[in-house]
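Running co-folding for 6-phosphogluconic acid.
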Amino acid sequence: MEIIRCANQTHMADQVAGFFRDLAQRALREKGWWSLALCGGMTPRHLYERLSCAEYARGIAWSATHIFFGDERCVPPTHEASNYRMAWDLFLSRVLPPETNVHRIRGECTSADDEARRYEEDMKAFFMPREGGIAGGFPVFDLIVLGIGPDGHTASLFPGDPMLEERERWAVAVVAPHGYEPPRRITMTLPVINHAKNVFFLVAGARKAAVFRDILNTPDAARIRYPAARVRARERTVWFVDADAVGI
Ligand code: 6PG
């Protein structure tokens, strides 16, 4: 595991934004475009705000940046629980990638399964024509940003959910366990996440200390118990962890 220890969430945002910008610039130099998937929750808020600052935003060609979402809640894009709305309010509305570069999961859908299938077709339409866009039958994202729940979920892949074992589809509809609102969600599947070149995990807060410690100290057992522990990007899986989550 590649671990970057951060003093606090502000420091984490700076660290991740630097890695993000470097990765984007390298990909843009190599192939002229790059793709990423954003996550929801509270942890990435500082990062999204940081990325919209000139220090980082100016260094990235947003017109060649293609933005997807690792998961979405089944709510309209204007809803306060929408992952898209959070990214738009804090980040995308300020860097303004072309509208066609932002691949939203349509949380306002009536059928989550239909929308998961539409989102899969949207990803296929983007990645299949591109050189290097597909490997092993799955899309090759340059970067997927993920959070982790205290139960070890990531995206909307929750412990014990049969969809964790999905090996064909790229996106599926799930129902989050009790306590995770709103429950109806659409999520990328584990094979999509694991075919990404790079994954950045953002881990902040004392609530994540136990699960992070388990993943660090007992990885084999953690892989059975926690979806996040089963993430292995093709090149780098970088865990950005603040002091509270490290437990110091
Ligand atoms: C979501 C996220 C989810 C999130 C974790 C951690 O849609 O909620 O994709 O996987 O990253 O639940 O959330 P916090 O950052 O709020 O702790």
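Result summary
The mean pLDDT is 97.
The first helix runs from residue 9 to 31.
Job closed.
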